[in-house]
Design brief:
The structure is a single chain. The chain contains four helices and 20 strands. The mean pLDDT is about 95. Helices cover about 10% and strands about 40% of the residues. Strands 1, 2, 3, 4, 5, 6, 7, 8, 11, 12, 14 and 17 form a twelve-stranded mixed beta sheet that branches. Strands 9-20-19-15-16 form a five-stranded mixed beta sheet, with no helix packed on it. It has about 260 residues and is mainly β. It folds into two domains: about 45 residues, SH3 type barrels (Roll); about 210 residues, Fumarylacetoacetase-like, C-terminal domain (Fumarylacetoacetate hydrolase, domain 2). It is globular and about 50 Å long. The chain binds magnesium ion. The site of magnesium ion has 7 residues, from loops. Magnesium ion binds next to loops.
Length: about 260
């Protein structure tokens, strides 16, 4: 199921999006909790769920590590993404004043469904609730030292668009077999495939849960492939992952 939340005529709804056909992203219907249809273009999209803690992986695609001129990590390279950075589908990303190089990152986000502590890779997928699309926005100017957590560079308000749906695991046959794309103003800028992950989801969950309890609705961003490029105020980003829909967000300069 593609679960979502939205506001229409001042009321908040828990919704379901029914694609026109399996795997199709366009032309489906948006239904509220009573089964009544709403116009997907006319509603205000909200986060599809309220995330718990949010962790990201740096350099989890070999081609992206190469584009940055960095070595592939020996173990998952984790960082925090603050919940205050969350932004729903169609929300406006703030472009901080005076910044030179800000870029998007299309990422498969894993949503935890059950408490996890010291779970082995072989069983880890049983703990996954589903998936969504994340945009792990970064100000590259502020990444001074790759051994320091990039809290400012990745933690700015609005730097974590997430959604539009929480797609339950039963609808995603293989999360390591999905194409992913990022468009800026309609131009294809980033293209990759989740098969390119260095550490796959079961290993990531085993690693994190070996020292930290993961809880329902915790989110893990699994990294981005090659293809980062500069975005500017006035640009519109559209991130797509196969079977998960499209996450769209405009960028405006900080007031
Ligand atoms: Mg990233």
């Amino acid at each position: 199921m593609r679960l979502c939340r939205f506001m229409d005529k001042g009321r908040v709804h828990q919704g379901v999006y029914r694609p026109a056909s399996p795997g199709q992203d366009q032309g489906g219907v948006l239904l509220d909790e009573a089964g009544l249809p709403h116009d997907p273009e006319g509603v205000v999209w909200l986060l599809p769920f309220t995330p718990g803690k949010i962790l990201g992986l740096a350099l989890n695609y070999k081609d992206h590590a190469e584009e940055l001129g960095l070595n592939r990590p020996e173990e998952p390279a984790l960082f925090w993404k603050p919940n205050s950075a969350l932004l729903p589908h169609r929300g406006t990303v703030v472009y901080p004043k005076g910044v030179e190089f800000m870029h998007y990152e299309v990422e498969l986000a894993v949503v935890v469904g059950r408490p996890m502590r010291k779970v082995r890779a072989e069983e880890a997928m049983d703990y996954v609730l589903g998936y969504t699309i994340a945009n792990d926005l970064v100000v590259r100017d502020w990444v001074k030292n790759t051994f320091r957590p990039p809290i400012r560079a990745k933690g700015h308000d609005t730097f974590l668009p997430l959604g539009p749906f929480l797609v339950t695991q039963d609808e995603v046959q293989d999360p390591h077999a999905l194409w992913m794309r990022a468009y800026v103003n309609g131009e294809l800028r980033q293209e990759g495939h989740t098969s390119g992950m260095i550490f796959q989801i079961p290993e990531i969950l085993e690693f994190i849960s070996s020292f930290m309890t993961l809880e329902p609705f915790d989110v893990i961003l699994t990294g981005t492939p090659k293809g980062i490029s500069r975005v500017r105020p006035g640009d519109g980003m559209r991130l797509e992952i196969q079977g998960l829909g499209a996450l769209e967000n405009p960028i405006e300069e900080e007031a």
